[in-house]
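R.M. (postdoc): so does anyone remember the format we settled on? I'll just put the structure tokens first.
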């Protein structure tokens, strides 16, 4: 199985780099953050408080989540736009700190990769916990300013200060939670996209994957 794991904080360029890398390598791309967002979306829709951990965990086990390049579906309802909205973004850190939700989504992420023989998989705990044997682990980062201005540009109705505050809040929650917090795997390569830029980062990672493949196949 050929897994490329990409972890890093919000706005570090994971989605853009992940999608392009997958395209260049002929692999499928999975955004695991969208799966956590899908659970938060389902909870809000069913009027379940995200803090009600047991009910949210039961919900995570029960719902059907499809994340692909057409968008995100939760029990056949198109949630592509809503999972990026402020309500879900606000609730998702609590959902992502729920250990039973994490265990359910981890199992789904592993099954997804096994079905496809691997993929480019992006999240917070992919190289550290979900795929500790990934072919390549990448920790993508960028300065807080660069990350906030990227996110502010993506969402035209939000201003920079609000986005910067929200990113800081989510960084603290993602890095500070007890179950699989955002962290750099010891054997990950760190790429700072505020220094390198997205295109250059993708080129470099394609080359790294090629070298790893050649190494593991003894070419
Ligand atoms: O990447 P994102 O902003 O869409 O992620 C949404 C939330 O889910 C964010 O708070 C981090 C969390 N997450 C996680 O805990 N583990 C993952 N593998 C992916 C995302």
């Amino acid at each position: 199985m050929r897994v490329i794991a990409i972890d890093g904080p919000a706005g570090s360029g994971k989605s853009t780099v992940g999608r392009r890398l997958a395209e260049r390598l002929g692999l499928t791309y999975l955004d695991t953050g969208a799966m956590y967002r899908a659970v938060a979306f389902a909870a809000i829709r069913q009027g379940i408080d995200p803090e009600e951990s047991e009910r949210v965990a039961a919900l995570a086990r029960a719902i059907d989540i499809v994340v692909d390049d057409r968008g995100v579906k939760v029990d056949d309802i198109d949630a592509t736009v809503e999972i990026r909205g402020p309500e879900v973004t606000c609730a998702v850190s609590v959902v992502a700190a729920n250990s039973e939700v994490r265990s359910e989504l981890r199992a789904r992420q592993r099954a997804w990769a096994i079905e496809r023989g691997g993929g480019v998989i992006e999240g917070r705990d992919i190289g550290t916990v979900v795929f500790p044997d990934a072919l390549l682990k990448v920790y993508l980062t960028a300065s807080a300013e660069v990350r906030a201005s990227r996110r502010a540009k993506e969402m035209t109705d939000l201003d920079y200060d609000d986005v910067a505050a929200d990113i800081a809040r989510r960084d603290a929650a993602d890095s500070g939670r007890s179950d699989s917090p955002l962290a750099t795997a010891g054997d990950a390569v760190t790429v700072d996209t505020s220094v390198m830029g997205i295109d250059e980062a993708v080129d470099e990672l394609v080359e790294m994957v090629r070298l790893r493949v050649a190494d593991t196949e003894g070419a």
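R.M.: ...and that's the designed sequence above, right after the tokens. Also worth knowing: The chain has a mean pLDDT of 94. The longest strand covers residues 2-7.
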